[in-house]
Amino acid sequence: MYSDLDRVINWVDELIIIKIKAKSELDFVLSVTICYHVIINVSMKINKDSATHKLPYTVVLLDATDAFYYADIMENMESVDIFEDLEKAKALADALFVVKNYKWESLEDMNEADGGYDVRIYDKNLSCVYAAHEKFKDKWIGS
Length: 143
What we know:
The protein has 143 residues and is of the alpha+beta class. The chain folds into two domains: 1-45; 48-143. Helix content is 45%, strand content 17%. It is built from five helices and four strands; from the N terminus they run ααβαβααββ. It has a four-stranded antiparallel beta sheet, with helices on both faces. Helix 1 (4-21) packs antiparallel against helix 2. Residues 66-74 have low confidence and may be disordered.
């Protein structure tokens, strides 16, 4: 089974081949853009299979403004702390999510405004193993 990191490494290898085969600069730019979006989508997917998680876990705060395009997420992300214990990492992620988003009326309102923050946990292989917003989908902060 390939980890997300293995997939990214394979895509980088493919990018090198694409650059060699590209007929023009535009072909290469389009190929890079497509690979970038595929890599981002993989890193945003939540890997709930704990058997594949690799220590340590890194808690990352993401600015979700304009998150649909992922550009702001990649430029405005902050590694908060590193843990060996996933439950402690989840506790911090949930607490940060509340502190950063308690003024919103709901997750839906936050998403419609394309604002707020998410807090995610990544393992050693850069696989997202937890996203704090998932906990608050059905029961919002304080309700």
